[in-house]
Amino acid sequence: MKFLITSSRFASRFHKFQTQLLTSSSSQQLKFASPSSSSSSSDSLTSCLDDDYGIRTITLNNPRKRNALSLEMLQSLASSISKPWDNLRIIVIKATGPVFSSGHDLKELSKERPSSYHADVIQLCSKLMNSFKDIPVPIMAQVQGLATAAGCQLVASCDIAIAAKSARFATPGINHSLFCTTPGVALGRAVPRKAALYMLFTGFQITADEALRFGLISEVVADEFLENEARRIAESISRSSKPVIKLGKKAFYQQIGLNQEAAYDLATTTMVDNLKIRDAQEGIEAFLQKRQPKWNHKG
């Protein structure tokens, strides 16, 4: 059985993901903002910048509302993430202001809105976060401040997360008698069970160092170095072979849910397929010839 996923199949998956959201049968239609054809696009809630390195930087840009993941913010984020770009290598999600994201906008979840609207918000958030593992490039969170509830879920859903020393994380829904059940899905897959339940049952904030120890984030840096370190990581990933990154990410998330024997079977097949990629043979030859490889980024 072949586990190598082609670009066309990934494109089909993206299209299916967008179609599911756009054709929601619930009372509130879920729509993406129209993607811009330029390398940079923005609206009142997010900005999206694609650069020459293949790095897409998406910035949550509603600090007045603590970058809450409102329905509109989620739609904009989904649109920015899924916007087609052949040169895409990595997606970085960051935020403006002292709060990375406070999670859902609780005004949208109040009794002033019908239950169908509540379902729209939660379902869109869940579909978006669940889609991260299927996106064929790494997604990195760059956390400069507080990330709570669905904001913490966003961090946990990313493949990599780097945080400033002053960053804090929490799932405080229990304090409002709204258990962070959906954030708990991502959290419980990123950190050990007892760490996740400690956060979910108490609502306590944890520090960046504690988040690193739990496994919620990948690295902690001094606040003044956050931007530079995130850039260093993104550029390093952008220099790798695109089809190999795609293959590796896909295989990692496939094998993680399998028993060890099945995981090794999948990984073995994947490595054999990896060797058929031109860039893999170029990398081997470059190593043996003691020269720098030249990737063509084709499968």
**How are the strands ordered across the major sheet?**
1-2-3-4-6-8-11
Domain count: 2
Percentage of residues assigned to helices: 40-55%
Distance between the termini: 18 Å
Low-confidence stretches: 1-8, 21-42
Examine the secondary-structure arrangement and name the CATH architecture of the largest domain.
Alpha-Beta Complex
CATH topology of the largest domain: 2-enoyl-CoA Hydratase, Chain A, domain 1
Instruction: Just give the CATH class of the largest domain.
Output: Alpha Beta
Largest sheet: 7 strands, mixed
The number of helical runs is 11
Task: Give the averaged pLDDT, no decimals.
Answer: 89
Give the CATH H-level superfamily of the largest domain: 2-enoyl-CoA Hydratase, Chain A, domain 1
Gross morphology: globular
Beta content: 5-15%
Q: Which secondary-structure class do the elements indicate? A: alpha/beta
- Tell me the number of strands: 11
Rg value:
20 Å
Which characteristics define this entry?
seven-stranded mixed β-sheet, alpha/beta, Lyase 2-enoyl-coa Hydratase, Chain  A, domain 2, four-stranded mixed β-sheet, disordered N terminus, single chain, globular
